[in-house]
TrEMBL record:
Domain P-type ATPase A: 307-390
UniProt GO MF annotations: ATP binding; ATP hydrolysis activity; copper ion binding; P-type divalent copper transporter activity
GO cellular component: a single term: plasma membrane
Keywords for the protein's UniProt record, in alphabetical order: Cell membrane, Ion transport, Magnesium, Membrane, Metal-binding, Phosphoprotein, Translocase, Transmembrane, Transmembrane helix, Transport
Transmembrane intervals: 167-186, 192-218, 230-253, 259-277, 407-426, 432-456, 727-751, 757-776
Source organism of the structure: Oceaniferula spumae
Membrane topology field: Multi-pass membrane protein
This protein's name: Copper-translocating P-type ATPase
Chief location: membrane
SUPFAM superfamilies cross-referenced by the UniProt entry: HAD-like, HMA, heavy metal-associated domain
PANTHER family in the record: ATP7, ISOFORM B (PTHR43520), CATION-TRANSPORTING P-TYPE ATPASE-RELATED (PTHR43520:SF5)
Length: 801
């Protein structure tokens, strides 16, 4: 399988020749070699990184970082030691840590850099007044790493932290219980002088394990029963509770046949280990991206200049909106003019020009650098964006599993109590009958399932991570198999984030001066066409950017700069001479680079599907495929015709509410919705499951999974993997059924004892683990689909700023 030279992501067919999955990876690969940092690849080895796409070319706002560093430097004094906790997106291996540390130490004033690859937490130390933090942040971005604010401790997964503590403590108790039970299994006489002490230590170890770890399962089982739900915690809690109570009775009555204290402690430890594995895998994926949002946390009031918290924003408030930020509420343009992207609202990629007195909807992203003042027309709590940001409820129930557990628990209770009653009726004494009952409950504890199923989940999730897909929610693999209908958003989901240059000759034919000016004009622009040009210029373009040249923006037309000797360069809509600010109608699609008003190069763009999209859709023949878009009908139909999606399954010009309504009407219980913008949020809530394009900072937090891959070919592989996962689960379940049937028969015959149970428990778990691993290890052999990048109709006129 051919992989990306930089990130090791499997390549589509159309990408094999270049050797890179995206322009971002190609750029960073060249930068690493140019800077002499090739050791990164030796340290990275086979570790897969996240595809970079256009991340190195984006314009990130690190002003908050500069302000915090300035305050720290002032507090400490020149030359003093400053420290700051931050988050870093993109680190995943020792090679990443080495590269970031090497880049950090190259800056004057740097002291220490500590990074956790698991959580992305980073702690920096530097000499106050001697370290340029913003330069370091921008340099890291070029290499594919993004600095963000430290994750709020209240947002960390407390469950994972508690599980880790409980796991460590219960591990010690399990070792104690096992160690002090071993002499009894080896034939230690009951009248041995230390026998009572050993039993006491074993009992206390099991008791503490119940209090620390067993209580966690019992509490969750009680909560689920109150909610009318059955899950794996219920049989675990029942088995371990009855085993412990029976062991207490055996300890008080001095009946060795009831002493399962070591089993209780070890069982709790193993179950906590399995649950920790599941929770840690989900948490790793959640921590993969920074906790960022395109909506500003606070706004600057105009003209007072004080900050307005987002939750306090009221109708009538006047506020300033920085470039790259999202309009939080429906507003009126009070002063100035600027270009906005409405892609997240209606799915249309075309930027819109707004002047004083025009209405700007909530969710519009400001592209221009120009200063503007907006007047809020509604409170934040009532805005459409606030509603879209609210996380909807996502069901994690599995009706099939609940039904199986109900039957399982019923059978175990009947066999346990029925077997004990049968022995009493046959003339056996009460301790003997109780031994039969307790042994049934002990041997029926779902130890094998509790260990093997988390392993199966982790192996399946790891296979998806290798394809750039990250699972965020538990019970994902059982729920994904229920999907029968797949709903796609168009812009940014089926298509690439940025319009593609139709031909590269226009760039390749530029002389060095023209290329330098073009790269400089594009560097500070957030317009999609500028970002696309900068991406195509690659490493060469980054080297050509001249930070000393001042860029002047003309909203609705483009931008210009003075290149010296009275030469004026401009980049803007076709037909704009670049010499004045008179608004003109574009003569054709795309944009032009001009020198003193004379055309130098014309660039045309087209909307392109993601690689392999057509083949991906074709391979989903067993699913109902729908396209729901807010974009114009002509564009959406062009996409659907290219993909062979039935006309009746294609809907254009939809509002966020329309998308949610259609999902609810068509197939809400078996629907998977894939999207990337705010206008997809309500549809996420309406669908049974959801997947988000990563990097937008909005939908990842409410999706079941997000993906960083440039293509969509992971979808058919995800369903294939879900079937394989189900096969592994069924195989483990069948083995557990056979094992339990045989072991319970031994219990009912009165032949089970603590020693035999101590042997059978790890053996059954080992067989279950081997069974699940052998089936899911074939994930590496999943076939790689071909790739095709399909060009759609040329894009309409873009107003470039």
């Amino acid at each position: 399988m051919t992989e990306c030279i930089h990130c090791s992501t499997p390549l589509e067919k159309s990408q094999v020749e270049s050797g890179f999955c995206c322009t971002g990876c190609e750029f960073v690969h060249g930068l690493i070699h140019e800077e002499g940092l090739q050791n990164f690849y030796d340290l990275k080895q086979e570790e897969r990184l996240s595809p970079l796409n256009d991340q190195p070319f984006q314009e990130y706002d690190f002003s908050w970082l500069g302000e915090e560093v300035e305050l720290l430097d002032k507090d400490v004094g020149d030359g003093g030691r400053c420290e700051m906790d931050l988050s870093l997106q993109g680190v995943s291996c020792v090679g990443c840590i080495w590269l970031v540390e090497r880049l950090f130490t190259r800056h004057s004033g740097s002291l220490s850099c500590d990074i956790s690859p698991a959580t992305g937490a980073m702690r920096l130390a530097w000499k106050a007044g001697q370290f340029q933090m913003l330069d370091f942040a921008h340099e890291l971005q070029k290499f594919g790493y993004i600095i963000g604010r430290p994750r709020d401790a209240s947002h960390k997964n407390e469950e994972l932290k508690k599980l880790g503590h409980k796991l460590g403590i219960c591990g010690a108790f399990a070792l104690n219980a096992m160690g002090f039970s071993l002499p009894r299994y080896l034939g230690m006489p009951a009248d041995f002088m230390f026998a009572g002490i050993f039993e006491l230590i074993t009992m206390l170890s099991a008791t503490l394990a119940m209090l620390v770890g067993g209580s966690w399962f019992i509490q969750r089982a009680v909560q689920s029963l109150r909610a009318g739900i059955l899950h794996m915690d219920t049989p675990i809690a029942l088995g371990v509770s009855l085993a412990y109570l029976g062991s207490i009775a055996g300890w008080l009555w001095k009946h060795e046949g009831l002493l399962y204290f070591d089993f209780v402690a070890i069982f709790i430890f193993l179950m906590l280990g399995g649950r920790w594995l599941q929770t840690a895998a989900v948490e790793r994926n959640r921590n993969r991206l920074l906790e960022q949002t395109p909506v500003p946390r606070s706004l600057v009031r105009v003209p007072e200049g004080d900050a307005i918290a987002l939750v306090d924003l009221k109708s009538g408030d006047r506020y300033a909106l920085p470039a790259g930020q999202t309009t939080p509420v429906s507003s009126m343009m009070a002063e100035g003019e600027a270009d906005f992207s409405l892609e997240w609202i209606n799915g249309e990629p075309d930027p819109c020009h707004h002047q004083t007195g025009t209405h700007v909807p909530a969710g519009a992203i400001k592209l221009s650098q120009a200063s503007i003042t907006l007047t809020a027309e509604e409170n934040w709590s009532n805005s459409m964006l606030a509603q879209l940001l609210r996380e909807g409820e996502s069901s994690t129930r599995s009706p099939v599993l609940e039904k199986i557990l109900k039957i399982y628990l019923t059978v175990v209770l009947i066999l346990g109590f029925g077997g004990g009653l049968a022995w009493l009726l046959s003339g056996a004494d009460f301790p003997t009958a109780m031994q039969v009952t307790i042994s049934v409950f002990v041997i029926s504890c779902p130890c094998a399932l509790g260990v093997a199923l988390p392993l199966a989940d982790d192996m399946a999730s790891s296979a998806m991570r290798s394809l750039g897909v990250f699972i965020r929610k538990p019970a994902f693999w059982s729920r994904i198999r229920q999907i029968k209908s797949i709903f796609f958003d168009k812009t940014g989901t089926l298509t690439l984030d940025l319009p593609e240059l139709t031909e590269t000759a226009s760039l390749e034919n530029l002389n060095e001066e023209s290329a330098r000016v073009l790269a400089t004009l594009c560097a500070k622009s957030r317009h999609p066409l500028s970002r696309s040009l900068l991406k195509h210029l690659g490493l060469k373009g980054q080297r050509l950017i001249d930070p000393n040249l001042e860029i002047h923006e003309v909203p609705g037309l483009g931008s210009w700069l003075s290149g010296g000797s009275g030469v004026r360069w401009s980049l803007g809509k076709c037909g704009w001479g670049g010499m004045d600010e008179t608004q003109v109608t574009a003569t054709s699609a795309g944009c032009e680079l001009r020198r003193n008003g004379e055309p130098v190069a014309t660039f045309t763009f087209q909307e392109c599907l993601r690689p392999d999209t057509a083949e991906t859709i074709a391979s989903l023949a067993g699913k109902n495929v729908f396209i729901l878009s807010g974009d114009q009908n002509e564009r959406v139909q062009a996409i659907s015709n290219s993909l062979g999606v039935a006309t009746e399954h294609v809907h254009a010009g939809l509002s966020p509410g329309d998308k949610a309504r259609l999902v609810g009407e068509i197939d809400p219980d078996h629907a998977l919705f894939l999207g990337d913008g705010a206008n997809d949020s309500l549809a996420f809530d309406a669908a049974n499951m959801s997947g988000a394009v990563a990097g937008r900072g909005l939908l990842e937090s409410k999706s079941d999974f997000y993906f960083l891959s440039s293509g969509l070919r992971f979808l058919p592989q995800m369903f294939t993997l879900a079937d394989r996962h189900a096969l592994a689960v069924r195989s483990v379940f069948i083995f557990s059924l056979i094992y339990n049937f045989a072991a319970v028969a031994v219990c009912l015959w009165g032949l089970m004892n603590p020693l035999l149970a101590a042997i059978l428990m790890p053996l059954s778990s080992l067989v279950s683990l081997t069974l699940a691993a052998s089936i899911l290890s074939k994930n590496k052999c999943l076939t790689k689909a071909g790739a095709t990048s399909i060009a759609i109709t040329p894009s309409p006129t873009y107003d470039i700023t």
